[in-house]
Amino acid sequence: MVINRKQTIALILWWCEGTKIRRDKRWKDSYLYPIEVTNTDPKIIKIFINFLREDLKVPGDKIKGQIQVHEGDDQEKLEKFWSSYLSLPKQQFNKTIVRPKGNRFRNNHGTFKLRTYDKKLYLILQSLLEDELKIFSVNTTESGAIG
């Protein structure tokens, strides 16, 4: 499959900011294949949700979101912001996570995690990413460990 520049950017965002395959602790020898991107920058999340909707044809009801905020943030305002900005109904949000204030840089939008689960689609994305990375003579299964 030949992909365009916009799709390549979305794949790279998923590779850099996305959740990787992981063991499902509920069952032995079982894995989860989440297609997730987490970031504080609304534009990054918007690029990826558009990729899911327009390019991958993921049904709208299969796309979920979750916000992480800090104590003192206006949770309702942030939920409304993300819902409106992404055209994603609040009913498709998982419970918002509220963290202690901490000494970290505070942004105005919290952290948003966009997710869908689809093993077949995950494997297709992984294959597309591998194809794109061939120009760098890199594959995503390399650990990067030195030694």
Question: How would you describe the overall organization of this protein?
Answer:
By secondary structure, this protein is α+β, with helices and mostly antiparallel strands. It has one domain (5-136): Roll (Endonuclease I-creI), CATH 3.10.28. The chain is built from four helices and six strands. The strands form two sheets. Strands 3-6-4-5 form a four-stranded mixed β-sheet. Strands 1-2 form a two-stranded antiparallel ribbon. Strand 1 (22-23) and strand 2 form a beta hairpin. The mean pLDDT is 86.
Index terms:
6 strands, 147 residues, two-stranded antiparallel sheet, Endonuclease I-creI, 4-stranded mixed beta sheet, Homing endonuclease LAGLIDADG domain-containing protein, alpha+beta
Write the layout of secondary structure elements.
Layout: H1 5-17, E1 22-23, E2 31-32, E3 34-39, H2 42-55, E4 64-70, H3 75-86, E5 97-99, E6 111-117, H4 119-133
Parallel strand pairs: 4-5
Antiparallel strand pairs: 1-2, 3-6, 4-6
Helix pairs in contact: 1-2, 1-4
> Class by helix and strand content?
alpha+beta
Low-confidence stretches: none
Counted by DSSP, the helix tally is 4
Sheet with most strands = 4 strands, mixed
Instruction: Provide mean pLDDT, rounded.
Output: 86
Helix fraction, binned, reads 25-40%
Shape: globular
User: Class in CATH?
Assistant: Alpha Beta
Adjacency order of strands in the biggest sheet: 3-6-4-5
Q: Evaluate the radius of gyration.
A: 17 Å
The CATH architecture is Roll
Task: Give the helices and strands as they follow along the chain.
Answer: HEEEHEHEEH
Number of strand elements = 6
Report how far apart the termini are: 36 Å
CATH topology tier name = Endonuclease I-creI
Count of domains: 1
Q: Please indicate the percent range of residues in DSSP E strands (runs of 2 or more).
A: 15-25%
Protein name: Homing endonuclease LAGLIDADG domain-containing protein
